[in-house]
Protein: Alpha-galactosidase
Amino acid sequence: MTLIEFNETQGIFHLHNSKISYLISVEEGGLLSHLYFGKKVKDYHGQMRYPRVDRGFSGNLPGTFDRTYSPDTLPREFSSAGEMDYRTPAVLVRQENGANALALRYKSYQISAGKPSLPGLPATFVQNDNEAQTLTITLADEVTGIEVDLLYTIFANQAVIARSSKLRNESDQTIYVEKLASLEMDFVDKDFDVICLPGAHANERHLERGAVNFGKQSFASLRGSSSHHMNPFIALVDKKTDEFQGEAYGFALVYSGNHNFEVEKDQLAQVRLVAGINDFNFSWKLVAGESFQAPEILLAYSDTGLNQMSQAFHKTIHNNLVRSKFKNEERPILVNNWEATYFDYDEEKLKPIVDEAKDMGIEMFVLDDGWFGHRDDDNSSLGDWKVYQKKFPQGIGHFADYVHAQGLKFGLWVEPEMVSFDSDLYQQHPDYLMQVPGRAPSPSRNQYLLDMGREEVRQNIYDQLVKVFKEAKVDYIKWDMNRNMSDVFASDLPSDQQGQVYHRYILGVYKLMEDLTAEFPNILFEGCSGGGGRFDAGWAYYMPQIWASDNTDAIARQTIQYGTSLVYPVSMTTAHVSAIPNHQTGRKTPFDTRGAIAMSGVFGYELDLTKMSQADKDQVKVQVKQYQAIRSLVQFGDFYRLKSPSEGNQTAWNFVSADKKEAVLVTAQVLAYAQPYLTKTKLAGLDPDKYYQDQETKVIYGGDELMNLGFYDPVVHEDYTAKMYHFKAID
Ligand code: GLA
Structure:
């Protein structure tokens, strides 16, 4: 199947599949121009050639007299500094003479089957080369010899393109890459809104939408991490776009470090997006012959609203980014002891929780923070991955055996990137800590960052973890990271390479994860960073699931899980039922509500099972069975958002199996009213010609009825309610 064509006479590249087309042209002087990204077109007949108009103060190409052709207005694929383009550049390179000018011009192209990997970085892949094609366009700067490869992969069956860029120093001098975007995309005649996912610890990824105005907006993280505060994703959408209609362009960076999405509306109301690693404190030295690879970014297009954009991301992340052998396996229902005990536990205190878990049908016990060093609170022992003898006198393996003997899997919490001052590791290797010489490092949760960019540091942690993973016979690992980066400095790098530290850190973390996940393919790894502080597409390459938030409140979780679903598949999003009053918000929500919201993700419990009422214990047994019955559908079905928690008193979403024979609907309401306005819920994604039976009431509906008429939501006189409906198609 041909997915990429090049028309030599026109100088037009056309990437297409049955859903989308992406058009690029080589213009006068070798400038690469962006023509189109959107719904599929069969052929291209030249109508998107950018009109030549003389624009004041937008100059022209050196050596030409044509005033109508300016790099400052042309929609570009990858712009540089130093030429007549006053918009945000995609690349900045400081050269030996101090100049940062580059004139990147089309040099050559290559089309290859499949999808190349990106060394050291997470990136999409395909099983067979016929699932994708990759176009590499090489741009070159004639004066220095510097070259940039632009990579575009189009997948055969998705409305998704993966892009990245690589700068090769083909000059004879040492240069410093001070910015290298993963993508630039310019739009003409688009009055966009921009959607982003900002947040905070315990309040991650709530959907925000605003106008793209003149000037520049930036959606960024400088925390050394993809962050709770601004997820590495934006969507540019038409004003009228909603969940089910309108155009949406989504951009998700496959990267876990500092990022920046710069959106600029220029003098002609054209919109430029430049996205990739944040150039703050970034400077990558390249001696002659070396190259720098920017992370990958996924572009998803939808002409029928946000749900379709999200589904394209979900499928691509699940199929082409998650590598774990557990990707298609139903994930175990777990109980985690964090909110049950915090640090106050030992083996004898935990055993009854394990016993209860067994009785309730729960499938895995996860031992959270506090099992190592001499950790009784969060002031010590990070870096010492040896069992705390006081809590486990017969070793961690002994407790793991107990858990396994009850028929449960055993999981363990670790925080590999950190060190406490009060630790053996710090006593032995104070230099492993990231700190600026002569300055006291800043604590956060009274802990400090190890410089994971250094091989020696990684090796130390790797050796400790391998030992304990084996000893503890773990089935699952929760990999945490409970602070952001500060004191950014690497003691082993010279001054002209300190601008590499942020990125080198993330590459080091990727390397450590690569090594450990390769060494332990049978461990299910879950990412975490104070909840969802590193919930990004890059992480999915190493770990198939991530703890979505430390906020376990069922009302707050609706907003968090709703926003998360904009990009990330449900199989990646973990959600637990916890105790009331909720530890983060103090709110008391009914047990059913907590169950319905947590069952909308990868499900588990985060409470002391021994301290529950008998009624709640019985309810857990019911929930476990209920979730087991819908687990595959929830984790691997198609997900549709129906009502947004940020737009009113209600939330609704539904899951539909691939064969459309089964669906689960979850509806939730925040407050009850004396005289409520009546509301309806309509499902989405069903087969209109099938008949579906509500498994609880046994009432039968047509798929078209459920989608077009819907039904009245029940009137309830109770706050914080939620209800789960399970429909099965009948013959
Ligand atoms: C983070 C995690 C929590 C828990 C604690 C332990 O905050 O998100 O789930 O593991 O660390 O310290």
The two ends are 37 Å apart (CA to CA). The first strand starts at residue 4 and ends at 7. Residues 614-636 form the longest helix (23 residues). The chain has a mean pLDDT of 98.
